[in-house]
Amino acid sequence: MCFQIREGYEKELLATEDIICYKRLSYAKDEYHFNINYFERDMNKDYDDYNPFDFISPFRLEKYSLGEIKSIQGNLIGNSLGEIHVGLHSYSSAIHANFFKSSYEMIYECIIPKGSKYYYNPNHNEYVSNQLIVMKNL
Hints:
By secondary structure, the chain is mostly beta strands. It has one domain. It contains two helices and twelve strands. The strands form three sheets. Strands 5-4-3-9-12-6 form a six-stranded antiparallel sheet. The chain has a four-stranded antiparallel sheet with strand order 2-10-11-8. Strands 1-7 form a two-stranded antiparallel ribbon. The relative contact order is 0.31.
């Protein structure tokens, strides 16, 4: 999935306050994603250093935990086609997030924290940001 930068909205924005948004996520132990927690734990020889996670995102299988800030490394940079491929995707409304969700996904209310960098596409009601916090299941 890539974020489409639209004409008139090319400028990277800085969140001046927390922005409520919505994200499609799967429970990390669901059968469709092969119990990722289990496989990671088995590959990790030092179980004390294991940091479990709660959810994974579609497409890129990014790991999320409830209440923790998820950040990306680097900048949100668009390519010559006006697309951003690296970033944390979310929707501005739960209705739009629900419209695109799969049967094994759930919708979560999230926050783009104050001070985060982000873009907004009003045509798709979609954000891409460098930070995101998963708050609660709807």
